[in-house]
Each structure stands twice: as C-alpha cells, then as structure tokens.
Amino acid sequence: MDTLFYDGRCPLCAKEISTLRKLQRGELVFADIHRQQNRKGMLPTREALLRRLHLLTGEGEWVVGLPANVRAWSHTRVGFFFRPLLWPVIYPLAARIYENWADRRYEKKYACETCQV
C-alpha cells in the first residue's frame, strides 16, 4: 500500500484528497502532514513535505512532486489520464509547471514572517 502525505491545511489540496478518497480502490493511505510525528527521522523534513507532494510506496521508496501525484492518481480508475504527464516529451514542462506552482503555494502559505510553520 502507498501512503500519500498531503497538506491538510491547504483548501486546494484538501479538495483533491477528497476526490482521491472517493475514487481510489482502497490501496492508498492518506496522511495529513500536520498530524504526523517524525519519529527518529523516518520522514522527510516538515518543510520538504509541505513544499512538494510526497508518496511513500509499499516498498519503502519515496516518490516526490509530479510523479507522486501521478502515482496517487494511478490508484483510481481515471489514473490513465495522468500517465502522459510522465512521458519524456511532456514531463520536463509539466514538472516545471508543478514545481513553480508548489513553490508559490509554499511561499504564500508558509514562508512569510507571520505564518511560519
């Protein structure tokens, strides 16, 4: 089973997770970053988890960013719509768009002086 770590305080993230919960086939576990304790450094840093989507595979490997999103959606019947995002011709641009969006989301929500995590 894969575990998807998500930002439960982000309205957009929460909406996507709600949709994933409805569509997934019971093979994906959801973990709100804000409810996790990093025992003995088993998880990436809180900042890393908040900056990019993280998925821990059942085999113990970390998948981060756009590939984590595609893998999470692969647990649904509509996952095939997301696979082209990993194709060599599309991936560089799609990853850049995802990373820019993720960085802006993090900076806006967590990196300002009044809203430090």
Overview of the molecule:
The chain is built from 4 helices and 4 strands. It has one domain. It has helices at residues 11-23, 46-51, 66-73, 91-109, and strands at 2-6, 28-32, 54-56, 62-64. A hairpin with a 5-residue loop joins strand 3 (54-56) and strand 4 (62-64). The protein starts with a strand and ends in an 8-residue tail after the last helix. The chain is globular. A 4-stranded mixed β-sheet has the order 2-1-3-4. 39% of the residues lie in helices and 14% in strands. The protein is an alpha+beta fold and 117 residues long. The relative contact order is 0.16.
Helical stretch tally: 4
The rounded distance between the terminal residues' Cα atoms is 29 Å
Arithmetic mean pLDDT: 92
Strand-and-helix sequence, N→C? EHEHEEHH
Number of self-contained structural domains: 1
Residues in β-strands, percent: 5-15%
Category from helices, strands and their pairing: alpha+beta
Strand order of the largest sheet: 2-1-3-4
Outline: globular
How many distinct beta strands?
A: 4
Cα radius of gyration in angstroms:
14 Å
Please estimate the helix content: 25-40%
Low-pLDDT residue spans: none
| Major sheet size, sense and barrel closure | 4 strands, mixed
